[in-house]
């Protein structure tokens, strides 16, 4: 397992939170949607376990030169409300 870092910025609070997580060594070689899905499963189960979090992904892209996957979308809270987000995932250095 490899170590990764996700920077999640949300438009509701203006926060920029960084999360470290584990994933398969080849995670960044998978499609950007799969990379983001892997992180969002961790958000749902480990980071925000008290409330089910779903998400809508509007764009996902990978910059191979820099090794960053970027996603733009909305977190959808179980108790209502959507929070627009910008997400960047890279290997921990």
Describe this structure in words.
The protein has 93 residues and is an alpha+beta fold. It has one helix spanning 32-47, and strands at residues 2-10, 16-23, 53-63, 68-77, 82-91. Strands 2-1-5-4-3 form a five-stranded antiparallel beta sheet, with helices on one face. A hairpin with a 4-residue loop joins β3 and β4. The relative contact order is 0.26.
Question: Topology of this structure?
Answer:
Elements: E1 2-10, E2 16-23, H1 32-47, E3 53-63, E4 68-77, E5 82-91
Antiparallel strand pairs: 1-2, 1-5, 3-4, 4-5
Provide a compact summary of the structure.
By secondary structure, the chain is an alpha+beta fold. 17% of the residues lie in helices and 52% in strands.
Kindly list the characteristics that best describe this protein.
single chain, 93 residues, alpha+beta, five-stranded antiparallel β-sheet, 1 helix, globular
What is the mean pLDDT?
91
Strand content: over 45%
- Written as H for each helix and E for each strand, in order along the chain, the element string is EEHEEE
Low-confidence stretches: none
* Overall 3D form: globular
The amount of helix comes to 10-25%
Summarize the biggest pleated sheet: 5 strands, antiparallel
Q: What is the distance, rounded to the nearest whole angstrom, between the alpha carbons of the first and last residues?
A: 14 Å
Strand order of the largest sheet: 2-1-5-4-3
Tally of alpha and pi helices? 1
Calculate Rg over CA atoms.
13 Å
Number of strands: 5
**Structural class based on helices, strands and sheet pairing:** alpha+beta
């Amino acid at each position: 397992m490899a170590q990764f870092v996700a920077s999640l910025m949300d438009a509701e609070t203006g926060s920029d939170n960084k999360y470290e997580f584990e994933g398969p060594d080849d995670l960044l070689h998978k499609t950007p949607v799969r990379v983001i899905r892997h992180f969002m499963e961790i958000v749902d189960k480990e980071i925000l376990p008290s409330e089910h979090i779903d998400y809508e992904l509007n764009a996902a892209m990978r910059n191979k030169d820099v090794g960053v996957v970027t996603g733009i979308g909305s977190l959808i809270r179980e108790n209502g409300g959507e929070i627009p987000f910008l997400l960047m995932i890279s290997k921990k250095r």
